[in-house]
Amino acid sequence: MAAALTGVATVASLLNGPAAQAALPTPVSAATARSYLAALPVAAEDRTGYNRDLFPHWITQSGACNTREVVLRRDGTNVVTDSSCAATSGSWYSTYDGATWSAASDVDIDHLVPLAEAWDSGADAWTTSRRQAFANDLTRPQLIAVTDNVNQSKGDQDPAQWLPPRTAYRCTYARAWVQVKQYYGLSVDSAEKSALSGILNGC
Question: Which residues contact 194 (CB under 8 A, 6 or more apart)?
Fold first, then answer.
């Protein structure tokens, strides 16, 4: 219950003015991530039946604000929104590539563990409500505002196939990835586990 209340408080602080701006959730330590990774089940991926619409996302969080708009406000600097909660100005630093943007249209909200990757790793057995919770998770380091074309180049690839071009962020990325997979009880494939092990061992 305490965790749920924390999540609610975080969302509320995001929406109640610039004085109380929350930060992107900090992922677990490298040591914790290594222990989580060692315990994750290893399984081949299966995309049979995947459809992005099976993960309802950008749901309303408060008032007129949906999840995307909450993350834009959380991850940006001096973000101004209109009456419909759309960001009209501000700046966004993309930790994936080190670029800074002044238009929200240049920024995507990345699902750090992509929806298709989650499906491949066990979310195909989830209820729709659990998939919705995953796709809109503001409590764990699963949603992050990044450069749009960098997010598009990532697509649905896992860390064996794609890593943030900014090497300084890769340790944080791997820690966050493992934390999200551990929390949601998702599996890893062998190449993914090997890639994550290599990154975390160097953290």
Answer: 160
Give me the DSSP letters along the chain: -HHHHHHHHHHHHHHS-GGG---PPPPPPHHHHHHHHHHSPB-----TT--GGGS--S-EEETTEEHHHHHHHHHEEEEEE-TT--EEEEEEE-TTT--EES-GGGEEEEESS-HHHHHHTTGGGS-HHHHHHHHT--SSTTEEEEEHHHHHHHTT--TTT---SSGGGHHHHHHHHHHHHHHHT--B-HHHHHHHHHHHHT-
Q: CA of 146: how far to CAs of 41, 47, 96, in Å?
A: 29, 26, 7
Cβ-contact 88, 82 below 8 angstroms: yes
Question: For the chain, what is the largest distance between any 2 Cα atoms, rounded to a whole number of angstroms?
Answer: 47
pLDDT, tens only, 157-200: 999 999 999 999 999 999 999 999 999 999 999 999 999 999 99
Cα–Cα distance, 122 to 120 (Å, whole number): 6
